[in-house]
Design brief:
The chain is mainly beta. Among the domains are: 87 residues; 148 residues, Jelly Rolls (Sandwich), CATH 2.60.120. 13% of the residues lie in helices and 41% in strands. It is built from six helices and 32 strands. The strands form four sheets. Strands 9, 11, 12, 14, 17, 19 and 21 form a seven-stranded antiparallel sheet that branches. Strands 24-29-32-31-30 form a five-stranded mixed barrel. A five-stranded antiparallel sheet has the order 10-13-18-15-16, with no helix packed on it. The longest helix is centred in the C-terminal third of the chain and has 15 residues. The protein is elongated.
Length: 494
């Protein structure tokens, strides 16, 4: 077929004749799934390499990689051939569910240090209250407090070592010979080690930013302790701790989405050099255990500023991870007699970013499109709102406002969803072919009048031996693509 030459397949870098092959790539995954058949005699000769986990790659005649991943366990031999299936390297992100604590400001994670599952002994009355947006200690008057009396709150981040704690403290009266201590241990009830001590005095306000090397300690206790001789205060004291930040991986209150993406890629043995620098501070961000690094991690983070991400082939430093804005553009040619199937999507004139404040209150940041796209249309005077939920408690509206400003321009313009089959593609340099188009790219239809001036977002490409490339426009074209894209919706709205 014009413009589409055969692909050459290899398994562990050895050429293999794969017939009836089909493979795809999807948005926020990259190379996704493949299937095909090989001769039984080929399998018998190379059974040690044609095995689960072997790298399978498809090249075009120029030597460019058009798909790569790893084999699943081979199927049964039938009629002299063996069915094979593979998954792209993005499966590493899909299968990763371990917790990643970058920074949290969530006070609801703290409970009294003597409660289950911690059980640490205390020697002050139960006076620590993890209120919405604060930790609060009350020291009643006319009670005697002995040296080393203490009480506090604990939080456990299983498997995520703690490296920093920062907070602001206010008191109603000075109180010398007391301290706010930060201790860490191995959860849920390991031996505690002192990491920082704030000696209190007549000063009524403090700011603390303590970084420390705590090894593998994943539990933190913040406690009030009497450090001086016994005392019986004649007036009660109230201590209020706010602006609490607990860090694991991040070393400060700022870490861009691109830096987190590169960190996640490195943890999975991938090459993050294809992730472009972003200017969006993702903190606080605490990826909970049980949440997929693909959906709740990469898709959520890069979705905050309307970027794609994808995992491609291994170019010597691990599978290449790319992330960036939608800027790669192709002019494509339809297959003969292939009529694009495109439907107009809803236009929105408002974006609402919903989140929880660090005080535990629900909040929302809304941004209206200017000019209103509905002026002069039957929708004039009406509101159509696109809502997105942020996953972590926010100290202010900075991130919600940033997210809204990134999403609104696209959502307030006319978009289209559907699919088109193409046999040729040329990029801005005049080079390329249809199989080089990837999810995260833009295409313009060169030979279809209604769309010749519009750039369309590719969400999936599906390739099959001897067939045109099937492009999903703002939509999947396969079951696996549907799963990947629904994962993004869940990551944004769960």
């Amino acid at each position: 077929m014009r413009g589409l030459l055969p692909l050459v397949w290899t398994i562990d870098h050895q050429p293999v004749d794969v017939s009836g092959w089909r493979c795809n790539a999807v948005l926020n995954r990259g190379y996704d799934q493949m299937s095909g058949r090989i001769r039984a005699q080929t399998y018998r000769r190379h059974s040690s390499s044609i095995a689960q986990g072997a790298v399978i790659t498809a090249y075009d005649p120029s030597g460019a990689v058009r798909w790569e991943g790893t084999l699943l366990a081979p199927g049964m031999i039938q009629n002299g051939t063996l069915a094979i299936q593979g998954v792209g390297h993005a499966q590493r992100f899909v299968d990763a569910y371990g917790r990643l604590l970058y920074e949290t400001r969530d006070y609801s994670l703290f409970t009294p240090m003597d409660a289950d599952p911690y059980g640490y002994k205390t020697s002050l009355p139960p006076s620590t209250i993890a209120r919405a947006g604060q930790l609060h200690w009350t020291v009643p008057q006319n009670e005697t407090y002995n040296t080393q009396n203490h009480y506090g709150a604990a939080a456990w981040f299983p498997g995520d070592p703690i490296s920093r704690v920062a907070y602001h403290l206010d008191m109603n009266l000075g109180m010398g010979d007391w301290a706010i201590e930060i201790q860490t241990g191995s959860g849920p009830s390991g031996t505690l080690s002192l990491r920082h001590s704030l000696a209190l005095s007549g000063t009524l306000s403090y700011d603390v930013d303590a970084s420390f090397a705590a090894g593998d300690d994943d539990l933190i206790v913040i406690q009030l302790k009497r450090t001086g001789s016994p005392t019986t205060p004649g007036a009660g004291r109230d201590l209020v701790l706010t602006q609490l930040r607990v860090n694991g991986i991040a070393t400060s209150d700022e870490m861009f989405t691109s830096d987190i993406g590169k960190d996640m890629a490195a943890r999975l043995g991938c090459d993050g050099s294809g992730i472009l620098p972003s200017i969006v501070n993702a903190l606080p961000f605490d990826l909970a255990s049980g949440a997929s690094w693909a959906d709740a991690g990469m898709s959520y983070l890069f979705g905050l500023h309307d970027w794609y991400w994808r995992v491609l082939d291994d170019r010597g430093a691990g599978p290449l991870v790319q992330a960036g804005p939608w800027t790669k553009s192709w002019t494509v040619h339809r297959a003969l007699d292939a009529e694009p199937q495109l439907d107009a999507l809803d236009v929105y004139n408002r974006v609402a970013i919903r989140y929880t404040t660090t005080a535990g209150a629900p909040a929302s940041y809304s941004l209206d499109a200017t000019p209103d796209p509905f002026v002069g249309t039957p929708m004039q005077g009406r509101r159509n709102e696109w809502a997105v939920d942020l996953s972590d408690p926010q100290p202010d509206s900075s991130l919600p406002g940033s997210v809204a400003s990134y999403l609104l321009p696209r959502l307030s313009a006319q978009r289209f969803s559907g699919h088109v089959r193409i046999i040729g593609a040329v990029d801005d340099s005049g080079m390329g072919d249809a199989r080089a188009v990837l999810p995260g790219d833009l295409i313009t239809l060169a030979d279809w009048g209604p769309m010749e001036s519009r750039q369309l977002r590719v969400h999936e490409t599906d390739m099959e031996e001897g067939q045109p490339v099937h492009c999903g426009i703002e939509a999947p074209v396969s079951a696996s693509g549907l799963i990947a894209l629904s994962g993004l919706v869940l990551a944004r709205s769960a």
